[in-house]
Amino acid sequence: MEWRFEHSARSAARKDEVWPYYVDVPNWRVWSVEGVEWSRLDGPFAVGTKGKSKPPGRLPAGSFRVDAVVPEELYRSETKLPGARLLFEHVIEPAGDGVTITHRAILRGGLARMWLALLRGSIEAGLPAGVERLARIAGSRTAAAPGPTD
């Protein structure tokens, strides 16, 4: 089984104005309030680096691995679940004088249906709100871009 859910938003931002928000993993909660309580990356923002993120509410923190990075265009993370995999893709595409930002969740595997029952509500609530907020924040020329955090 495979389940997909995605949301896109237009932004007045340039690709190089959106990308820093992805790389600044400890501050994902700033733009993904409904999706991330806290997050960390245990190394550089590069393929193979592992991290951990905690969704708000009762769901436990989960480990992830960055499995694709194309600077200023795309990154994807993967969380291995018993019997399934959860992928999150984040895509930035040029659109007129700005960009379209798309976030996509993909759940696949033999036990995906079971995991979907647990995760669907959180993903469907948090993902669109996060994309919309990121589009607004990155598109606001007065907003300060995130910087390195400790």
Your description of this structure?
The structure is a single chain. A seven-stranded antiparallel sheet has the order 1-7-6-5-4-3-2. The longest helix is centred in the last third of the chain and has 28 residues, at 112-139. It has 150 residues and is of the alpha+beta class. The chain has a single domain, classed as Alpha-D-Glucose-1,6-Bisphosphate, Chain A, domain 4. Helices cover 27% and strands 39% of the residues.
The overall average pLDDT, rounded, is 93
- CATH superfamily heading: START domain
Number of helices: 3
| Count of strand segments | 7
> What is the domain tally?
1
CATH topology, which one?
A: Alpha-D-Glucose-1,6-Bisphosphate, Chain A, domain 4
